[in-house]
## 1
Amino acid sequence: MHSIDRISIERECARLILKYAYLNDERNFEALVDLFTEDAVLYRPASPGQAIIGHSAILDAFKSRPVDVATFHVCSDIIIDIEDDSMACGRSRILLLSGTKPPGSGAVPSEAKPPVPGTFRDRFQLTESGWKFTERRGSFWVQS
């Protein structure tokens, strides 16, 4: 594999990680679920032992989140390892900031929780519509 191909794959997979954070924080769950393959598996950091399988289940899980909770995911230390032209895996660190917004308020929470560090381990696959998550496995260092 040429260096430019490796760089391109690494960049596309890292971009998925960053897009996931933005779409999650913006509560744009319909766009977020499109980052996954149809049969993808998600293990959310708050419940790392519970598999959420497939687009519908992933979308339902995000839509069930309380509407008064605002989140801000800080992603760092993204490492992508390429297996072949169509498969890759990665890992990254997150710092989750969250808080409760009073009804009718703006984007800034009135009551913030302490930051929670965690990690994600990801598997990626090249599809007809680009790179997507096939598995996203999150865990917090401490329970929030």
Note: The mean pLDDT is 93.
## 2
Amino acid sequence: MDSEQQARLARLPTPQALDDTLLERCRLVVVDLETSGLNVNRDRILSVGAVVVENGSIDLGSQYECTLFQENHRVTESVLIHGIAPSEVARGVAPADALLDFMAFADNGVFVAFHAAFDQRMLQRGLRQTLNTRLRHVFLDVAELAPMLYPEVTGRKTLDDWQDYFQLRNSQRHHAAADALATAEILLILLSRARAQGIATLAELNSRLRHWRRLRQARIGSL
């Protein structure tokens, strides 16, 4: 990491905590990563797509999309899914610069993703390896929020499942920017549902999530 990258890293703001900030007033950065595979300890980030939800709407003027250069990237089964060819990766942005640009775009926002644990761990590892820094931003998982807020809907587990349920279209599945936008559209529906249930702040949403997880674990443990 050179001196300019160090300076940019030092200028990144303190991330938003899950506090009493109103949901409609916080910056929610909906992110999707396309990777070389699903092994969080070995595979690498190939593409980042993100869109901002703020003031109750998707800010289409505030989107991020980038393909990362990764040395010796080869055709794998994942390429057949996301379609990012080795030639495209070879023309990509250096990982340190790409991730710095992305973190600057994210600003102090709360990250949101579908099956967020995977994106969180991949981003965490990417930041550590390329910039020797920790990921401090918190993540919310739409794959948890959706069943929590719509308990009457059963059997829906994937992004496609919830898109079908809410009658949303996504013609470019497994494309980072398109999947981020699809997740953001679902998030807007979930935020509206949360408000209807009296959830107004990040802290209240997090508290409800913790309670929902405990109930889910108790049900699983009783089986």
Note: The chain has a mean pLDDT of 93.
